């Protein structure tokens, strides 16, 4: 079935087809996102003065988006992706900085020095916690809970409150099923300052729109 057949049978207009193409829902009919977006313009019939005109236009050879671009487009279109977690794209670089995935950290013994990195998904600052902030980092293997003390929060407020991707150096603490990472004296993102331009470009594409942080502040005045 061609896109024009789909548009006719389902009574889809051009905007409908473009939304489907942006979500990669037309892949089996029109190829990659770029090809589908191009074809969606011609697939829906015009309903204005050009309705009876005939335009023969061949689809150009459009290169497929990169994996990072596909992931970003997935999140832009539907808020999720069926592909890999964006941190998986950065894992080789993160391992060079000895930043371990959540699954590896979970097996660490108590008070072991640890390094973790992930997208910031939740920030919580309960009023009863005396200024302590709880941060949840997410990577391709799970979540890591981070406890940020007030002194470090004031020292690196910009990173603690605004970073989409956060790397933490500190001590791993575990007691029973309770596990968290206590930062020593720094919150940073080494990927952003890496010399590799490819790493920086990958981070920019994969994390710019993916980390939609949920901020919960229970503090009362």
From TrEMBL:
Residues 118-173 form the OB domain. InterPro entries: DnaE2/DnaE/PolC, NA-bd_OB_tRNA. GO terms for molecular function: 3'-5' exonuclease activity; nucleic acid binding. One of its GO terms (biological process) is DNA replication. CDD domains: DnaE_OBF. PANTHER family: DNA POLYMERASE III SUBUNIT ALPHA (PTHR32294), ERROR-PRONE DNA POLYMERASE (PTHR32294:SF4). Belongs to the DNA polymerase type-C family. DnaE2 subfamily. This is Error-prone DNA polymerase.
